[in-house]
Q: What sequence folds into this?
């Protein structure tokens, strides 16, 4: 059975699509059978992997409405992974699903039909907390939260963790938070480091390392219909995603692992040595923030259930 990872954050522009495309290509390089699912009506993942959403006749919209099985709609991509593409029709799908019984489970049931054909399924969730995102989380074994290391991106993490807690309680008790993936990271700025530390301490979530450095190479890749692993294979961004893919596949325990603020390797919360950030530097004091919010009992610590 395939292992399903949802990549979710209700804020747009935090590199969800880039992360799905890059991790999919990196896992394919490792010899894994990978299916990518585009759940965003904007169809950015579909476009980024060389398909034109405006001319596609079949899409994940047909799968979610039960018109076609996922295997018929799936398309190969140049970087090795298969893709369940999206079109703008997916925007109307959400409204239709609202009136259906068991609407949260339609993606999970669709993926069950092809799960034995893949090792990993990566779901690119839309920038919202609506029915489509709930479907992605209900179908997933783990969720990865891309976080642009800026204040506005930071604000949505607590809301997403609240949604994850609801999903685990109501529709998917096996769902776990793999961690927060820092993206568009600029190690030269104190602000980026402060945001990472504040997220780790405020929400007690794992910060996955290495962070993904900001680079124009990520913006160039979609225009060529390929991932950065092809267009800039030896770039720092490509190597960082390879490290995360090895960790996901269990092929390299020393890369792509997570750290939690206030903990050291192999220690429980609050028992580690001095806090360190993924770039190896000591943290700077966090900027002034509103009081910490509670995300409910059993909040995710190093991948524990939310």
A:
């Amino acid at each position: 059975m395939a292992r399903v990872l949802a990549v979710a954050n209700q804020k747009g522009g935090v590199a969800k699509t880039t992360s799905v495309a890059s991790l999919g290509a990196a896992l394919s390089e490792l010899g894994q059978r990978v299916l990518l699912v585009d759940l965003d009506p904007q169809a950015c993942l579909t476009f980024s992997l060389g398909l034109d959403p405006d001319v596609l006749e079949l899409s994940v919209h047909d799968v979610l409405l039960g018109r076609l099985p996922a295997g018929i709609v799936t398309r190969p991509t140049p970087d090795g992974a298969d893709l369940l593409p999206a079109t703008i029709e997916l925007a109307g799908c959400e409204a239709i699903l609202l009136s259906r019984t068991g609407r949260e489970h339609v993606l999970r049931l669709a993926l069950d039909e092809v799960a034995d054909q893949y090792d990993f399924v990566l779901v690119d969730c839309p920038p919202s907390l609506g029915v489509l995102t709930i479907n992605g989380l209900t179908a997933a074994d783990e969720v990865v939260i891309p976080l642009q290391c800026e204040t506005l991106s930071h604000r949505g993490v607590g809301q997403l963790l609240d949604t994850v807690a609801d999903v685990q309680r109501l529709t998917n008790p096996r769902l776990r938070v793999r961690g927060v993936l820092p993206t568009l990271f600029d190690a030269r700025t104190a602000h980026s480091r402060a945001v990472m530390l504040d997220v780790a301490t405020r929400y007690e979530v794992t910060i996955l390392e290495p962070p993904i450095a900001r680079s124009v190479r990520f913006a160039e890749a979609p225009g060529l219909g390929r991932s950065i692993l092809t267009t800039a294979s030896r770039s720092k961004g490509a190597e960082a995603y390879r490290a995360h893919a090895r960790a996901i596949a269990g092929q390299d325990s020393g890369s792509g692992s997570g750290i939690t603020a206030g903990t050291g390797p192999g220690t429980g919360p609050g028992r580690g040595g001095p806090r360190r950030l993924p770039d190896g530097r000591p943290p700077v004091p966090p900027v002034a923030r509103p009081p910490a919010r509670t995300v409910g009992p059993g909040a995710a610590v190093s991948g524990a259930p939310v």
